[in-house]
Amino acid sequence: MLALVTGAAKGIGRAITLELARNGFDVAINYNHSAESAESLCVEARTLGVQAETFRADVSIHDEAARMFAEARASLGTVSVLVNNAGITRDTLLMRMKPEDWQAVLNTNLTSCFYCTQIAIKDMAKARYGRIINIASVVGLIGNAGQCNYSASKAGIIGFTKSVAREYAGRGITANAIAPGFIDTGMTDILKPEVKEAILRTIPVGRIGSPQEVAKAAAFFAREDSSYITGQVLAVDGGMTMV
Ligand code: NAP
User: Fold this and answer.
1) Closest atom, ligand 1, to C-alpha of 183
2) pLDDT by residue (tens digit) across 123-182?
3) Residue 231 CB coordination number (10 Å)
4) First to last CA, the chain
5) Does 87 sit in the ligand 1 pocket, CB within 6 Å?
């Protein structure tokens, strides 16, 4: 069974790709700029005994996403598991946010999910089987000052996931979202120490999460035995958003 992970070269996407490979999935590794990391990931995945290939595409551009799926299909077969993981931040306060900061984040984080899901789901519907896993964020649930664009994109992913889940529930396709909290990757590395300290104080388990902890949840949704779970949002956040 083939899994395609967008933005797979680094951080959470990399951990998910390796966890899926450990679970026996062949992996199609999407990257945009990080060619070297994608290649090293590909080599590592193959050592786990599965097929792996890399595919460069900016998934916020429809034609590039479509080309990537066509290439993956030609070399590895049809995609049964899609992980929409590619994401960026352009943090700033609402009053300072430029239209291009808004648009870049919405295009990369949310519109890419629409493009990739719409393309991938054709083969899944034919096969009457599929798993869509969308990486949202806790800020899509609770918001965050300085992240109007990012939180809107992540809340959009949650609504999108639930609608896809309802549309395709009768065809053996599940769609679920994961809402990571504060995870140790390049995305959070750039935060100032005082910002990190402030976030840490809001996490009941008292520490930052690892990409592997998110990957375990993604692998569960990717497996056949999660078949009765769809349209859900699983927070992997050390208790940050518990009610
Ligand atoms: P990261 O280390 O910065 O990785 C982001 C990945 O997204 C990179 O591999 C990058 O690929 C890829 N990407 C960005 N724009 C792309 C595009 N247009 N086309 C294809 N790939 C693109 O960040 P991360 O923390 O692992 O984030 C992964 C996901 O988790 C994101 O959706 C993020 O919003 C979400 N998330 C992260 C946290 C956290 O605390 N880290 C919390 C909640 C949610 P290239 O390097 O190849 O360009």
Assistant:
1) 40
2) 999 999 999 999 999 999 999 999 999 999 999 999 999 999 999 999 999 999 999 999
3) 16
4) 37
5) yes
